[in-house]
Each structure stands twice: as structure tokens, then as C-alpha cells.
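Order emerges. For instance:

***
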Amino acid sequence: MALLTPVRSEKTDLDAVRRYAVSVIAQSEGEDLQMKAVTLALLGGIMWRSKPGSTEMTQDGDSAIAVLTTTLGGRHLTFSYDQQTESIVMREGQIDGPILHSFCNRTLIGDFEQTFRALWR
């Protein structure tokens, strides 16, 4: 049986998701304690439905806002944390693309699954 070597690259989907989670949770500290759970549920959906190798985390220009991009169901999506609304915004295409959904502490668990199931079709 071959031994698996751990991946240590920052190019993996899992590492991008981890870095994004750390960034969003740090940004939302002191604002809304439940953003931690929302962030983790959302990122679980991304890991569940995203195209392997398509997920990457970057910082948005001068604002230092963490931006997670991925491909779900053939669609290029961008996720960013909006401090004014205390939500993670999912957009089509780029950071300024149309808003498809916002996830906040009022988002029901079933809404996460329904959103990602619809994207997978």
C-alpha cells in the first residue's frame, strides 16, 4: 500500500478555504459572534460542490478584503465579507458582479443546502 504524502502547497482548495475562514472570522470579531458558524457552513458548501482545483483566496486591492473565488456548477463565483451588512456575499463572476445570495446569522441551514444544490444543477 502506497503512503500518501501531505500536500503543503498554498494552491490547494482546502488551504484557500482555510485562509478565507481565518480572514472572515477575524474581520467579523466583535461584530457578530454567529458569523463563525455561518462562515463554516458556507465554506462546507463550497468544499462540497466546488470544482476541484478551482478555489482560491486573494486580497482585494487596497481594502485588504479577503475574496474567495471558485467554480460551482460551471459558474464562476466570488465570495466576500461585507462588514456593513455583516454578511458574506456571493456574486456571479468578479467582486463587482451581481449579488446572487447573502449569508448572515439569519440564514437557515436549509438555505445553505438549497443554494448549493441549485448551483450544482
The first strand starts at residue 56 and ends at 60. DSSP finds three helices and five strands in the chain.
